[in-house]
Write a structure and sequence with these properties.
single chain, 2 domains, 11 helices, 30% helix
């Protein structure tokens, strides 16, 4: 099956963009987006088996190519305040959507803000459903084809694979940035045992722009890396410990996640 057909299937199943990355060693693994010396206890799993992340074949031995997809979850033209109001009580909303809230005190405050990615059904479910539909369609045309899905929870360097698949470049906020889609997107894909021509890697960078770094309330972004121990998104969605007082004092109201760096990015501005 050629690359064009694989991408056509991906777009038909709901991807906003798709590309093909090689199933090979990652040339920029050393540009890991979380500073190793700043990994808090709640993210210690990121330090496990670094060699396994170096090549997707270490995760799925049958991989011959990787279909990488981005799924846009937010349009810059969408009214955030209206969507947040629609969600209703923050604590009840998170509970009803199957999310764990570790900072109830923040959620109970007037004006508590929820990150845009969470104002909808759990993306792990929605993205994997779309990826499963893609694999099913691929198997209709290539019955012997096999593949393994990934979306956030696997030891796969998704942002680097997306860059290699031509879908964007790595921004100073550590996220995948697309000139067309910005950074309001989820990444997922399928490691396939099919040979497919890889796309050209995406070039480009943020240049002299550092708006995301200056917008971060706690200074967690430095030189294209994230100090997760300072990140409000980490403290409000993954840490079971109470947010440190020094960071809490700098929090402009985020109770689940934080969109400050993405709000400041010019690629996320209304066109």
């Amino acid at each position: 099956m050629n690359s064009a057909r694989l991408k056509e299937i991906a777009l038909s199943a709901g991807a906003s963009a798709a590309g093909i990355a090689p199933a090979a060693d990652l040339p920029e693994l050393d540009r890991f987006s979380v500073a190793v010396n700043a990994v808090p206890p709640g993210l210690s799993y990121l330090l496990r088996d670094p060699e396994r992340r170096k090549n997707i074949k270490n995760w799925y031995a049958g991989a011959r190519s990787v279909l990488v997809c981005v799924f846009r979850y937010w349009s810059p033209d969408t009214d955030y305040a209206a969507e947040l109001a629609k969600a209703g009580d923050p604590m009840a909303y998170l509970r009803n959507t199957g999310r764990k809230a570790y900072q109830p005190a923040l959620l109970s405050r007037t004006g508590a803000k929820i990150s845009r990615y969470a104002l909808g059904r759990d993306y792990h479910l929605t993205v994997k459903e779309k990826l499963a539909a893609m694999l099913a369609e691929i198997k209709k045309e290539k019955p012997a084809a096999e593949g393994k899905l990934f979306c956030d929870t696997s030891p796969v360097m998704e942002k680097e694979l997306a860059r290699l698949a031509g879908l964007g470049f790595r921004g100073k906020n550590t996220l995948l940035l697309s000139k067309e889609l910005g950074s309001w997107s989820f990444i997922g894909g399928i490691a396939l045992d099919l040979e497919a021509q890889a796309d050209a890697p995406c070039g480009g960078d943020c240049g002299s722009c550092d708006l995301c770094q200056r917008a971060c309330p706690t200074g967690a972004l430095r030189d294209g890396r994230l100090d997760a121990s300072l990140c409000l998104s980490y403290w409000t969605t993954q840490s079971k410990q109470e947010i440190p007082p020094g960071l809490a004092a700098k929090n402009p109201g985020w109770a689940y996640g934080c969109d400050a760096c993405q709000e400041a990015c010019p690629y996320n501005s209304p066109k």
